[in-house]
């Protein structure tokens, strides 16, 4: 059964990319002679045409966060693997992929600016300001959670910390080699890649390395914050993009091991398998399938944080419009494959509640790697490394995007150094503060999925209105996902407010986001009659704004 899951998922994603993805690319980017912002606004700081291999690696590794691993594991354990699998596959194809490529196209057609800046040109400053605030608050939640989770992976697997430290050094070498000395990407990769894999293998077994990098979580937090600060303020080609490229090579390697290993393990029919379906309530009967399943899977199917990258760093580096299909749609489908592999680890392990989602994934990935001849210990270390690649590459990119958002909020009155510092300080505050014996990010983690999907719903709504403004027709493929994501995320936030078991801070933060969302929709409605548009859409009338 597990073997058929991965095969069917790959077939679905392949067909979606070939037919639906190509249609989407032609729909959004029709101008044959359209020049990319990376060329006509090139400044070699944020704007520059990156090699396709480098750009795809940077984009994919940035969007493929730990949510694609944690979400499917938790959702599978709560509701069974069948509903989680269906949402990962169909969510990626019809919601997440549409969300990513549409937000990328929207930014490309407006000088590579963020979606909030594009919205200001259309709907005014009030809508622009509210979107920036909602996006920045949600981004800080993600940065806080991923910051601490990254430190945890380093603490639990010092070999990963050792390897990642070397990748930072290798990234400087790669960036300088390509963009200063014009050494080909293939040559640099051929030279550096063996060092990367040897470092991972050496760190997994060498006791000296283990002792040197067996640091406390607080020390790792400081080191990670320092790295993220540099990645945000330095030219993107010097550190962040080459480091993401190196990490992506291991991601590709890990995905290949996961796909093949999951197929092989499937034939062995493990006895401790997760149940296909537990019912419309979760296994502990505290959560409903809708909306909880959809916000729990999160990045495995759709992620609002992707719009911050598709409308942030990526459009400033895209060299040709033909690449938008692979970057904007294909990368989301590849993240769906990561989600399927993650779901496969919890299917193999059965109920993960006795261990953390990260440990569940690492142990399950170790079993998959074991079928290919790797020792289980090395396979588990590789699993932790895969998680860390997903965490850190998203963390550095979102820190940079947080800098963009704050600079937009303050109309560029803040320097890149100050905007980055404030974003990281806000995240550190959530990590350091505690409530009821838990760190604040752990308290707000249940909101991660809801706020993430809320950003996706808002983005899809804005894409719908943008398409109507530029006289595009046939927008139902965006309207339905927008309505579903807004209803799902908003309902989940209301449930958080009314749930007496949630801590006061969590309920207050949920209420603030609900209030800001209502203000945002109200401000948009002042410019465009949303109710009339919805009625006209249902009745099949011509939509105009």
| Secondary-structure element string | HHHHHHHHHHHHHHHHHHEEHHHH
Do you know the CATH architecture?
Answer: Up-down Bundle
Main beta sheet: strand number and arrangement? 2 strands, antiparallel
Q: What spatial order of strands do you see in the largest sheet? A: 1-2
Global shape: globular
Q: Compute the number of structural domains.
A: 1
Helix content: over 70%
Going by helix content, strand content and strand pairing, the class is mainly alpha
Instruction: Tell me the β content.
Output: under 5%
Number of helices: 22
CATH class category name: Mainly Alpha
CATH topology grouping = Amino acid/polyamine transporter I
How many strands? 2
Ends distance: 50 Å
Give Rg in angstroms. Answer: 22 Å
Poorly predicted runs? none
Can you walk through the features of this model?
The protein is an all-alpha fold and 545 residues long. The protein has one domain: Amino acid/polyamine transporter I. It is 76% helix and 1% strand. The chain has helices at residues 2-28, 37-40, 52-63, 67-79, 81-108, 115-123, 125-156, 158-179, 185-205, 207-212, 217-233, 240-268, 289-297, 305-310, 324-349, 357-370, 376-409, 416-432, 440-469, 476-498, 504-527, 530-538, and strands spanning 434-435, 438-439. It has a two-stranded antiparallel ribbon. Helix 3 (52-63) packs across helix 12 (240-268) and helix 4 (67-79) crosses helix 15 (324-349). The longest helix has 34 residues, at 376-409. The chain is globular. 54% of the residues are buried. The mean pLDDT is 84.
């Amino acid at each position: 059964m597990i073997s058929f899951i991965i095969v069917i998922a790959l077939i679905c994603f392949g067909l979606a990319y070939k037919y639906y993805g190509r249609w989407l690319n032609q729909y959004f980017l029709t101008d044959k002679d359209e020049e990319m912002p990376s060329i006509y606004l090139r400044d070699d700081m944020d704007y520059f045409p990156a090699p396709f291999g480098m750009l795809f690696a940077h984009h994919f590794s940035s969007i493929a966060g730990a949510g694609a691993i944690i979400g499917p594991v938790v959702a599978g354990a709560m509701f069974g693997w069948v509903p989680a699998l269906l949402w990962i596959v169909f969510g990626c194809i019809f919601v997440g992929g549409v969300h990513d490529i549409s937000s990328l196209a929207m930014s490309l057609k407006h000088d590579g600016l963020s979606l909030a800046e594009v919205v200001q040109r259309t709907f005014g400053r009030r809508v622009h300001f509210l979107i920036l605030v909602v996006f920045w608050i949600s981004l800080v939640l993600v940065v806080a959670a991923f910051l601490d989770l990254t430190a945890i992976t380093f603490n639990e697997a010092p070999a990963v910390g050792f390897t990642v430290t070397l990748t930072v050094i290798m990234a400087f070498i790669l960036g300088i080699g390509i963009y200063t000395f014009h050494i080909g990407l293939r040559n640099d990769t051929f030279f550096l890649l063996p060092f990367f894999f040897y470092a991972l293998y050496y760190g997994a077994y060498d006791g000296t390395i283990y002792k040197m990098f067996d640091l406390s979580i607080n020390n790792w937090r400081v080191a990670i914050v320092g790295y993220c600060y540099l990645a945000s303020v330095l030219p993107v080609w010097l550190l962040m993009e080459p480091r993401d490229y190196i990490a992506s090579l291991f991601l590709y390697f890990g995905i290949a091991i996961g796909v093949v290993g999951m197929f092989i393990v499937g034939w062995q029919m493990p006895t401790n398998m997760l149940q296909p379906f537990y019912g419309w309530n979760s296994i502990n009967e505290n959560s409903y399938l809708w909306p909880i399943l959809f916000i729990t899977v999160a990045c495995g199917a759709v992620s609002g944080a992707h719009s911050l990258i598709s409308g942030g760093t990526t459009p400033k580096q895209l060299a040709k419009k033909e690449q938008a299909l692979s970057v904007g749609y294909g990368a989301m489908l590849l993240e769906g494959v990561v989600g399927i592999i993650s779901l496969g680890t919890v299917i193999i392990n059965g109920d993960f509640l006795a261990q953390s989602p990260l440990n569940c994934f690492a142990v399950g990935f170790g079993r998959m790697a074991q079928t290919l001849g790797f020792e289980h210990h090395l396979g588990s270390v590789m699993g932790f490394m895969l998680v860390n690649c997903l965490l850190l590459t998203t963390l550095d990119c979102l820190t940079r995007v947080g800098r963009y958002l704050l600079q937009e909020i303050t109309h560029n009155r803040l320097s890149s150094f100050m905007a980055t510092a404030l974003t990281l300080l806000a995240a550190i505050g959530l990590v350091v503060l505690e409530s009821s014996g838990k760190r604040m990010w752990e308290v707000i983690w249940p909101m991660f999925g809801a706020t993430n999907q809320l950003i996706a719903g808002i983005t899809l709504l804005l894409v719908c209105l943008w398409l109507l403004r530029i006289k595009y027709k046939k927008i139902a493929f965006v309207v339905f996902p927008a309505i579903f994501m807004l209803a799902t995320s908003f309902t989940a936030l209301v449930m958080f407010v009314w749930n007496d078991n949630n801590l006061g801070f969590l309920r207050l933060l949920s209420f603030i986001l609900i209030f800001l969302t209502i203000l945002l929709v109200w401000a948009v409605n002042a410019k465009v009659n949303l109710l009339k548009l919805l009625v006209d859409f249902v009745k099949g009338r011509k939509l105009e704004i």
